[in-house]
Amino acid sequence: MSPAANPVILIVDDAAENLHVLYELLRPHYRVLAANSGEVGLRVAHSEPTPDLILLDVMMPGMDGYAVLAKLREASATRDIPVVFLTALADAGDIRALAHLAETRDTETGNHIMRTQGYVQRLAVGLRQHPRFAATLTERYIDLLSRSAPLHDIGKVGIPDYILLKPGKLNADEWAIMQTHAALGSDAIEQAEVDIEMPLAFLATAKEIAHWHHEKWDGSGYPDRLAGEAIPVSARLMAIADVFDALISVRPYKTAMSYDQAREIIAAGRGTHFDPDVTDAFLAGFDDFVAIAMRYLDSGALPAPSTTAPLVPS
For 31, phi and psi rounded to 5 degrees? Predict the structure, then answer.
């Protein structure tokens, strides 16, 4: 690891616009190095300061990302540096690749962003004819939600490892720091917006989700203690998606809850934690949410039990 106060991230991409966007997104919290080819990236990786993480484009002329990764893994000085593959930030699959940056910091999340993306899309489809949501949940907006959802936890790249990876309950000070990931994420996305000449609608939606998906219907959430309709629709949908996935997933401090138990916890939060109508849409489509969870199981993970199991205190 680099001895610098801030972790060092190396971006390797032949597209100048991608280097610029990623640089501006990450520089508030990291020391960022850039290379416009695989060959240059290898030289930088073997120089001081040693990168703590490498963001590596796949499709590059000359030495592509796969060849660069092979060379990195051959050398003892670079073989242990985490590498995240990226492609041009042009479609849903590519910006989802950027979201994996947050996942690399937390080995327990696995396919979390894939599952939550599926949950949010399913909730939106289930609510698009509802009188309260029909004007908002157009086909275009549902597409924006699907493309934006993977960035909901991008702010976790700014949370120290000793908190993010702690195998136990966080104390009050640690929890206060963890809560800052919501604002960190929206601030980073906003900085990217400022530096893009043509504003992207999906980044505006992603900023809403990142900032407010931990708000609660009764106003007891964070970071701004918004309540009711003041919480953007996008964040209300992500709130249920995020909590459901956390409940059915293994974490360092708990086992996976059963699908049935997770459903009961979501139902119990109707009108307090969650928008009542969004909760009803979740309950009505519950079998679909279980199917999404099964489709994107983490590698090597067993399905969450279908019936209630004892919990490990969190």
Answer: -85, 120
Measured CA to CA, the distance from residue 75 to residue 80 in angstroms comes to 9
Same domain, 207 and 314: yes
Tell me the pLDDT tens digit for each residue of 221-273: 999 999 999 999 999 999 999 999 999 988 777 888 999 999 999 999 999 99
Residue 274: domain span: 110-314
Q: Are 22 and 55 in contact (CB under 8 A)?
A: yes
Distance between start and end Cα atoms, the chain:
30
Residue 45 backbone dihedrals phi, psi, to 5 degrees:
-60, -30
With b meaning 16 or more CB within 10 Å and e meaning fewer, what string describes 152-179? bbbbbbbbeeebbeeeeebeeebeeebb
Residue that wins the pLDDT comparison between 269 and 92: 269
- Cα 19 to chain centroid distance, Å, stands at 20
Please tell me the distance from the alpha carbon of residue 37 to that of residue 60, in angstroms, as a whole number.
7
> Is 49 a member of any domain?
yes
CATH number at residue 248: 1.10.3210.10
Side-chain half-sphere exposure of 239, counting CA atoms within 13 A: 32
pLDDT digits (tens, 9 = 90+) for 125-175: 999 999 999 999 999 999 889 888 888 988 887 888 888 888 888 999 999
**Under 8 Å CB-to-CB from 92, ≥6 apart: which residues?**
146, 147
Q: Residue type at 205?
A: T
Report DSSP state, residue 308: -
Tally: H helices and E strands in the chain: 14, 4
Pair of tokens at residue 197? 């000449």
What is the average per-residue pLDDT within 91-105? 52
